[in-house]
Amino acid sequence: MNYSTLKKTVALSFASLMVVGIVNAQTDSTKTATATTTSSETTTPKVFGGLGQYKKFSIGVNVGATAPSVATGGSNDFTHNKVQLGYGLSFREQLAHSFGLQLDFHGGKVEGDNSKAPGQGGGYTAQSFQTKFWSGTLSGVVNVATIDFLRRKNSVNFFVTAGGGLAMYAPKVTYKNGTVVDWEGHSGNSDGSGTSKYVKELIIPVGAGVKFRLSDVVALNLGYTETFTDGDNFDGVKRAYLHKDKYSYGYAGLEFTLGSKSKPSLEWVNPVALMYDELYDAALRQEVEALKGRVTNVENAVNDLKKDSDGDGVADQFDKCPGTAAGSVVDGSGCVIVFPKADTVAATTSATAYSNIQFEFDSSVLRTSSYPVLDATSADLRSSGKSVEVDGYASSEGTAAHNLALSKDRANSVKTYLVNSGVDAKKVKVKGYGETNPIADNSTEEGRVLNRRVQFKRK
After folding, report:
1. How far is CA 296 from CA 104, 279, 305, 314, 452, in A?
2. pLDDT tens, 231-264?
3. According to the model, what pLDDT value does residue 269 have?
4. Which fold does the domain 3-27+54-268 belong to in CATH?
5. CA atoms of 265 and 154, how far apart (whole Å)
């Protein structure tokens, strides 16, 4: 197949693909319109749900025109561009809404001449050149803008690309004296001498373009790429001054997104629409309402725990005596504490004051049952101003030294209670007698219980 036939074949194939893409787009638009009349469009992916929610891979074909100069300017060995055919194949993985990696393979011809060179001289010894090339590059593709964020799906994306790769090419140069130098099969050195079929050079492609979504599967690309080579032999001519050759490629192409029909394409998803859908998702709103209900229940429970209807400082849930009068002094269960009055104490003093105080085995801790006797004794001492001797005793278990110390501790416990209730400490003296002076038989438990005591001696 010669090059002219190849050009026609590629052009025909590209036209066929364009027709298929437009038909698919019309079919998809019809389906979308029908669906819109029956139900509102919904988006199932979540903004932070991961790449697995989307279709990420695509394959594209393109065809266009090449030139030995670039739009950004710079010097060239040939003053006139002759448009030639270029074509390419791309594979892309979209890594985010606005960024992807793309592998490109390009081929074609680049041609120029010096038919319009000033003065037909000035160092322009070459009449024309034609270079066949093949290249493979890896580039980053950044979607920098969209004009369709007001729609639920983006329809137009503007993008820029940049990357690096390798080009293989073979220039053919015709000089003004009629000499023709064909590098194909003689490459390898900078002057075209060698045995390699093609020159191999590193290249840096930089481009920009716009992409139109024709359907959920097909997109139309219009783009322009400037390719800078790491050599001065792409056009077969190495001038006296040092510079690197470059060429450009303007193209149109179709891109086909691969993957499950149930997933949207990551590139065309509008993240603003996704955020809106998540915010107004029915299940999410139900979950938020349920959470509000749980918070309300907790708040009500806390308020119930804090509720104190009678204002006595004890919550209703723990108040065993609700409805106490304001200003009442209550205990931990909310019941009023009744303090004995002085005349009441005086009336009961003769019955309870100065009775023996009993203790548990090997203990000097006062029993609660002893409090009435101690309160009555305290009231009498405070009202009469009398002094008292507090004598501690113990049963016969244990050593005599231990029992002596225990008896003193018991006497001191009684004194501490009396002093804390208002009795002058100077009016209370303590003595410990250990296991001496028992009032009952220490050989029986009943007797030992009576001997674990404190006695009062009034003065």
Report:
1. 59, 22, 14, 24, 58
2. 888 988 876 566 789 999 999 999 999 999 889 8
3. 81
4. Porin (2.40.160)
5. 11
Enumerate residues 6+ apart whose C-beta is below 8 A from 162.
Answer: 139, 140, 204, 205, 206, 207
Return the residue matching tokens 């490109």. 104
- Non-local (6+) Cβ contacts of 36 within 8 A are none
More confident residue, 71 or 338: 71
* Extents of the domains making up the chain: 3-27+54-268, 281-335, 342-458
**CB of 424 closer than 8 Å to CB of 412:** no
The pLDDT tens digits of the residues spanning 366-383 come to 999 899 999 999 999 999
Residues in Cβ contact with 369 at an 8 Å cutoff, skipping those fewer than 6 apart: none
For residue 257, which of 98, 55, 96, 62 has the smallest C-alpha distance?
55
User: How many angstroms separate the CA atoms of 16 and 8, rounded?
Assistant: 12
Amino acid at residue number 123:
G
What are the tokens at 311?
């204002």
- In 3D, which of 162, 239, 168 has the Cα closest to residue 202? 168
Q: Which positions ≥6 away from 256 have C-beta within 8 Å?
A: 58, 59, 60, 217, 218
Predicted model pTM: 0.53
Superfamily of domain 342-458: OmpA-like domain (3.30.1330.60)
User: 180-237, pLDDT tens digit by residue?
Assistant: 988 887 766 555 556 678 899 999 999 999 999 999 899 999 999 999 999 888 988 8
Identity of the amino acid at 251: Y
Mean pLDDT value across residues 31-49: 49
Lowest mean pLDDT among 25-39, 43-57, 94-108, 405-419: 25-39
